[in-house]
Design a protein that fits this description.
Layout: E1 4-7, E2 10-13, H1 24-28, E3 31-39, E4 42-43, H2 46-59, H3 68-81, E5 86-94, E6 111-118, H4 125-129, E7 131-137, H5 152-163, E8 168-173, E9 176-180, E10 184-189, E11 192-195, H6 206-217, E12 221-224, H7 229-233, E13 237-242, E14 246-253, E15 256-257, H8 265-280
Bound molecules: pyridoxal-5'-phosphate.
Length: 283
Amino acid sequence: MSRTVYVNGSFVPEEAAKVSVFDRGFLFADGVYEVTSVLGGKLIDFAGHAKRLERSLNELDMAAPCTMDELLKIHRELVRLNEVDEGLVYLQVTRGAADRDFVFPEGVAPTLVLFTQSKTLIDSPAAKKGAKIISIEDIRWGRRDIKTVQLLYPSMGKMMAKAAGADDAWLVEDGFVTEGTSNNAYIVKNGRIITRQLSTDILHGITRAAVLRFAREAQMEVEERPFTIEEAMDADEAFTTSASAFVMPVVSVDGAELGDGTPGPVAKRLREIYLDESQKVAV
Ligand code: PLP
């Protein structure tokens, strides 16, 4: 069945959706995006994603396509039209279409595109098994706090992981892990959860914020600091967080098995708490 997608003010069948070849998202990766998960037909942490979208737009001096209230309505309508019970809403805003020039165009309307993906997220076989991680060098640009559509290197990172028989890659800069290709990275040692502090080096994960809040509320110890791959290989357990995978246990790092090589108790508990708590306030 064809999906209904949203393009610049209209809900249309995916085959009929069109964006200009002069769109700066296409020509310059001059665009930002958000991915919001849907559980039981409701949006998880929409307010967090809307706030980060506003921040990304501001940092790039890009016009907002509409108000965040209107965006919420579009998200909800798309979920309804596509009968999404469990899955994702992908949203992208670009600086719009203009004759190709490195200088930002003036007075051009931003492009707004949204589509849904129905998929099983809670009972994911990957989460039951846990992820095998390899480390690769982080050669991305220096404003990783802005959620841009420049995803070629993360995509190459996933391919490097696949070629190595692993599931994902963690990125390492100056000897320390920054984050995963599409997630934030954590290790657990002696019951203490360790994850890199927020800066321009990493994306300020919406799931990260929620999970750290739930961990602290559950009296778990959290330390926000950089860690090395050697520390990760020696950790009791590890995990990642993202809107599309929630809390994903990590079972090995660069071939070193963590704990008994199965998802660890802290990751499993945080996944449960996150799923329970975030669904209670879903919209
Ligand atoms: N870090 C990177 C590089 C990402 O691409 C993502 C998600 O796409 C995250 C972290 C996790 O962010 P969130 O929890 O908001 O999905």
